[in-house]
Structures are given as C-alpha cells and as structure tokens.
Model the fold of this input.
Amino acid sequence: MPDLEQDSDRAAELCKQAQQRLANRVSLLSEDDVRGSSRLRGWSVGHVLTHLARNADAHTRRLEGALTGNDVPKYLGCGAQRAAEIENGAARPAAKIIADLIASQECFAAAMDACSAQRWPHSKFLGGGHYGVGACPAHRLREVEMHHVDLGLGYTARDWPDEYVEWDLTILLNTVPERLSSDIDRRNFMAWLAGRADTIPVLNLDAW
Done:
C-alpha cells in the first residue's frame, strides 16, 4: 500500500490534480448553488468552499514556515476564530468565495513546488499537530477529496483516484475499533469482516 504521508512528491502531484478537479467543478457555480445546502449538516456549499480555502492557507503556512526553518502551527488562533472565519466567509458573494478558493489553492501548489525543489526541508516539523510538515500534501489531498464529495455537486466516492483510496482506506479502517460505540457493533463488524455475516451490519459509528 502506498504511504502518501512519506512520499511528499507523489502526494503533491495527486493533491494538485484534486485541487484542479475541484476548481473546475466550482468555477461556474451560481449564487443559488453556493447558498444551497451541502451534504454536511448546517453547512452550505459556501461554508465548505470557505473551509477548503482556509485549510489550503493553513497548509501553505506550514510549508512556507518549513522553507525558512520555522515550525509554525497549521491554524492561528482558537477554534472559535476558525469557525467565525468560515461562517463570515460563507456569506460573501459566490464570485468572491470561488476566487478565494482558487487563489488559496494556487498558493498551496506553489508552496509544494518550492518545498519539492528543496527536497522537503524540515519535513518532521509538527507545528503543534500530529503529523510532520512533509505530510501536508497528503492531508490536503484527503481534505479536498472528502469535501469535494461533501459539496453534493456530482462528485462522488466513485470518482476518488485509486492511489488515494489505497492510502486512506487503510487509515480509516484503523479508526473503526475506537469509533464503534457498543460491544455488539464491534462484534457484528468483526463477524462481517471475517465472512461470518451474510450482510453488511448496520453500525453506530462515531464521527471521524
């Protein structure tokens, strides 16, 4: 299985492709489209796009910090500040939301190219988080692929690239035991995995 967290260059290429697919899909959205509901409860399409823009900024901040030898955090400020930025940003006109997303993605792509040219300096910097700065392209890839589906605009899990699925499916499967909320759910899921159940069980799986 590929480990995209360790292969920054390959993750960067997949990430740039994913960002371009996203940009192509959202570039012609109308005001009504952007105000419409996404697949995430309580969030419009505009909320998701704003979140994706700020997430790109956050990863760019980490990469640019590594280029200058500074271990900077992904986000500045508290969770409430981030939530307010998304809420306020989602109220902007559609054209501004889309332009913001595209510009933030271009900045992140440029930062990835700069890091690649220098062979991903300081790739182990954590920035107070749980993964090194060299893994930013892989984590941004996940963010784009998951939230592209969340937009509810026709992009589905069937469109996910094989390399992304091969990487992230294993990671997601490893989270299942701690997210199953009851003993019976754990046993039903285990039985299904072992081929001891006729159908996929209905599970109460905590959010990831």
Notes: The two ends are 22 Å apart (CA to CA). The chain has eight helices and no strands. The helical segments are 8-26, 31-35, 45-67, 79-89, 94-117, 136-150, 162-179, 183-193.
